[in-house]
């Protein structure tokens, strides 16, 4: 989506000037993975309109692959408004109902070749738009699994899109059961499983069929539980200390970037959690959803310059 961020504090109805960005969880992840030097393709549908052209140009500038980008002249590109609030999470209003992305059809399945895809990343947002996008998400995952791709899933809960919490929980957990790594936030884990402890949430998803679970705990870092040939392992890694948190939107997407690129680079779990926590921390220090995503050099400098306690197994 296009995103317009208020330039002054206050309610959206009172704001007169905005700055334009490109937003969306999947876009954020795509940009982050590309900036860390990996090839990535982004699957979406845009309207045949100025917002669509803007997003397409942005993806190309960020070296995000557009081979699976489609246009639809009958439906518009979605957009959102976000206010500026230094004391609370920002107010975000979406204009995405009936968007071109929500009208993406199963025809895209035939166009996608997963034979050389190492990791396929999915969020719970696109699948929440309607029954067709849910089925398309499921079929894409099954096709990726058949081709041998490693599948990561960020539930990224958007209750307003689902209609009911019962439907959201059932469908999110159905998709999670098909994926290799599930990446819920600690609050999302409670909504989806009824458990409050990271170990309980992680075990819930391992029992469903996931091979690993990484739970985001915000400033408190992350907890991982995963299966290897010699059994189940756990690791708790604290977060990075920051002088100021500017905007929490996009932190989970940055975390996912750390997980995905670590898998691509065959990093150990301690290094994976350190990278994911670091990129999440970098994200909350800037108001844009993806402008602050780091290059390898900036990521290394951030980790070097910020104190992190040792992880405990």
TrEMBL record:
PANTHER family attached to this UniProt entry: CARBOHYDRATE KINASE PFKB DOMAIN-CONTAINING PROTEIN, HEXOKINASE FAMILY MEMBER
The superkingdom of the source organism is Bacteria
Q: Which GO terms of the molecular function aspect are on file?
A: kinase activity
Concerning InterPro entries, the annotation shows: Carboh/pur_kinase_PfkB_CS (IPR002173), PfkB_Carbo_kinase (IPR050306), PfkB_dom (IPR011611), Ribokinase-like (IPR029056)
Keyword field: Kinase, Transferase
Name used for this protein in its record: 2-dehydro-3-deoxygluconokinase
What family does the Swiss-Prot or TrEMBL record give for this protein? Belongs to the carbohydrate kinase PfkB family.
Stretches assigned to the Carbohydrate kinase PfkB domain = 4-295
